[in-house]
Amino acid sequence: MIDQHGPEAWYMGLPRCTRTFITVLLGLTLLSFFKVLDPYKLSLNWELVLQKFQIWRLVTSFLYVGPFSLRWIFFILLFSQFSSSLENNSVFLHSPGAYLYFLFVQSISLACISAAFFWPVGYPYLADSLLFAIIYYWSKRDMWTIVSIYFFNVKAYQLPFALLFLHLVMGSSLWVDIMGMISGHLFYLVREVLPSKEDPLTREGLDSGTIQDHLNPEDEFLLAEELDWVTHNYFKCNI
User: Fold this and answer.
1) Membrane-spanning regions, if any (predicted)?
2) Is 148 helix (H, G, I), strand (E, B) or coil?
3) 148 DSSP β-pair partners
């Protein structure tokens, strides 16, 4: 019988993509711990990807966060919390492959961004940047959720900036967070901001084939008057 409050229940309660990600990350960490696998083989190196065709580095660089440590535990806890919340969000909940697609897009985006920031090899391990991208997009989806950071409570939309400030105070490198923020914002911009700025009359008109259905009676009356005026003056000038 499974303990409802034990680690097995916690693990089985994770959404599918989040659980798979953590499982693979744990497996690679164990292989590295027992000296079966060299962590360098997992790191991103664009020169080796392009020249030696070591394509797996584009994937494995997101699946390793270092050896077992307190930092490793914190990463697992944060990833399980925010990745689960985002995977269970309404934007991904009803489409099984949607969250996997999100992770894929973020991986490609972060690999390219890291190449731009750390040319020519890129940033070696991008799991932390992926976590920050997840946190950023989640903060846009659940903007008003209250989140606790140590002794402070912030709203979700403030969380990425609070983490940036916290890491700055702690003396950590901000490039990892900045890359994640850029990647997460690009996804948010393309998926939600830009489509919402399209003219709904034009977009729906292309689907329905008629613009008249979108006009209210007052608009139809004004349009009819303008058409009558144009028609009257046109024929008057040509008689």
Assistant:
1) 20-37, 58-79, 99-118, 123-139, 159-182
2) strand
3) 153
Contact predicate 156/145, CB 8 Å:
yes
Q: How many helices (H) and strands (E) would you count in the chain?
A: 13, 2
Of 1.20.1540.10, 1.10.760.10, 2.30.30.30, 3.40.50.720, the CATH number of 7-197 is: 1.20.1540.10
Q: From the CB of residue 166, how many other CB atoms can be counted at a distance below 10 Å?
A: 14
Q: Is the pLDDT of residue 1 over 70?
A: no
CB 26 within 8 A of CB 74: no
- pTM, two decimal places: 0.80
**Residues whose CB is less than 8 angstroms from the CB of residue 225 and which lie 6 or more positions away in sequence, other chains included:** none
Q: What three-state secondary structure class fits 128?
A: helix
